[in-house]
Design goal:
This protein has about 500 residues and is an alpha/beta fold. The chain contains 20 helices and 14 strands.
């Protein structure tokens, strides 16, 4: 029983650690869609159930505590760990040919092999007598303790210090070592034991030798799918317990497999970056600004250099972005700007912890509305929380990612709204767009000591006029995304939108 308890705990630790890793794969390849967790968990549990059924065929006729039963446990241990090692490369290859959801049988098959171990251990460790129920409960407890330890240690410690491939190798080597020890305890003959152990050693060496090839650019393969080629790669990858951040050679950044912005602050090169620059178009004096989400740091860099902004607080949940920003000259100075306070925390938790904080403007470049947990930052409840932290005349400016539901929710909560490209400005006070004020602020803008618009450059002045004249697009129907919209136009776009609450999660599960 003692041996069965130890093996049950190790089995749970390894199995749940793999589940944590595989969910990261599925979440990344699906760009964080809300359905990813349920589908991945379903595939994993289906595999475990299949493994329990499969184990019936491999139970030895020998009695309880007969160590010959451990041979099947060891054999499944070797097979399951080798297959588990291949899950990520197999999925990366498969998504180049089929939809990501069709790769979930890979997870199910690996889980099937993992799932056979625990029933075999129960057959080995629990005698069929009047204490069978107690014995089974002890094994379940050991398995649950191991599973919890796997979730905690892998999910909160290993993932915060090691990349995905290294964690996988640690689990594989641990699993294969456990299998080797189990074989040694299974009362095999000397010759047979040496043969089996040599096989385990060979499997371990093959895994270690294949890992660099199979796991090279694994995240790029999962993201680009059928578009992945010899020259396709991510130039930077940051992995931690909060997720996977990747950067392309041209400076595009992706958080958890979804587009997250660019390391670009120059409004002369990129039309979409006009949004953070537009803050002074509808707010006369944004002295104190709160911003949620850091990503590339481009929006924060722009807001921090706004001539009217005196202090910027940035709340970001993933510290991995802080590792990337110093490597990109456009935004590197943000981390040393005395006007900026960077806080690693959850946005809603930070708001609850600072009930008396008030800001002239709160800015949030929200992620895609259909991703998991997006309702938490688009709901009526969140907007009401934002309202309580706005100073008189304050403005909340956030990205809707074109969601009609996000627009409809804002219209319900705030009486005054306008839109810049796909970002909404909402307030309890009328929003007066001042073209002259905006031009004056833009003309005074400097980024790290460099004038945004050179007053002696006709080209720069022409671009300045072009940007400021975007105000004149408001109220007109134009076939362009780079424009301003008034409340009537927003209402027209949001006509079919539904109000988002914390409970209904419409943006994530509205398709169901």
């Amino acid at each position: 029983m003692a041996l069965a308890l130890v093996l049950a705990a190790l089995s749970g630790f390894i199995a749940l650690s793999y589940e944590v890793l595989w969910f990261r794969l599925v979440s990344f390849v699906s760009q964080g869609t809300a359905a990813a967790f349920g589908l991945a968990l379903g595939a994993y549990l289906l595999g475990l159930a299949g493994g329990a059924l499969l184990s019936v065929r491999y139970r030895q006729a020998a009695g309880t505590h007969d160590r010959r039963q451990l041979r099947a446990v060891a054999a499944f241990g070797v097979a399951s760990n080798v297959v588990a090692f291949l899950v990520a490369p197999a999925m990366a290859f498969a998504v180049g040919h089929v939809h990501w959801a069709l790769t979930l049988p890979i997870v199910a098959f690996a889980a099937l092999l993992l799932g056979a171990n625990f029933p075999l251990l129960c057959h080995f460790g629990v005698a069929p007598d009047d204490r069978a129920g107690a014995g089974l409960s002890y094994l379940y407890l050991a398995n649950i303790v191991g599973s919890a330890a796997g979730s905690l240690l892998t999910g909160f410690v290993l993932m915060d210090h090691l990349p995905f491939a290294q964690i996988t190798l640690i689990l594989v080597v641990t699993g294969l070592t456990t299998s080797a020890v189990t074989l040694a305890l299974s009362r095999l003959g000397r010759k047979a034991l040496l043969g089996w152990l040599n096989g385990v050693v060979v499997a371990t060496l093959l895994v270690l030798a294949a890992a660099p090839t199979l796991y090279t650019q694994i995240w790029a393969r999962l993201y680009f799918k059928q578009d992945f080629g010899p020259d396709t790669h991510f130039s930077e990858v940051v992995e931690n317990k909060s997720g996977v951040i990747t950067v392309t050679p041209d400076g595009r950044i992706f958080g958890g497999g979804a587009y997250d912005g660019k390391f670009d602050v120059d409004v002369k090169d990129w039309d979409w970056i006009v949004r953070p620059y537009a803050l002074s178009a509808f707010h006369p004096a944004p002295r104190r600004v709160l911003m949620f989400g850091l990503s590339s740091g481009a929006w924060a860099q722009i807001l921090a250099h706004n001539p009217e902004v005196e202090h910027l607080t940035v709340v970001e949940i993933n510290p991995g972005y802080l590792d990337l920003i110093p490597r990109h000259p456009n935004v590197a100075s943000l981390l040393d700007n005395p006007k900026v306070d960077l806080v690693i925390d959850d946005g809603r938790r930070w708001l609850r912890a600072h009930p008396d904080a008030r800001f002239d403007a709160i800015v949030f470049n929200v992620t895609h509305s259909w991703r998991a947990f997006s309702s938490n930052v688009l709901s009526v409840e969140f907007l009401e929380s934002i309202r309580r932290h706005l100073a008189p005349g304050g403005v909340y400016f956030y990205n809707t990612t074109w969601s009609k539901d996000a627009m409809a929710t804002a219209l319900k909560v705030f009486p005054h709204t306008l839109m810049v490209v796909n970002s909404l400005a909402v307030s309890d006070q009328p929003l007066a767009v001042d073209k002259a004020r905006w031009r004056d602020v833009l003309a005074r803008y400097t980024l790290d000591g460099r004038r945004l618009f050179d007053p002696d450059s006709p080209i720069d002045q022409l671009r300045l006029d072009e940007i400021v004249n975007l105000v004149d697009t408001m109220g007109h129907d134009l076939e362009t995304d780079i424009r301003f919209l008034d409340r009537a136009q927003i209402e027209a776009r949001a006509r079919e939108g539904r109000v988002i609450t914390d409970d209904n999660m419409i943006t994530e599960y509205g398709f169901l």
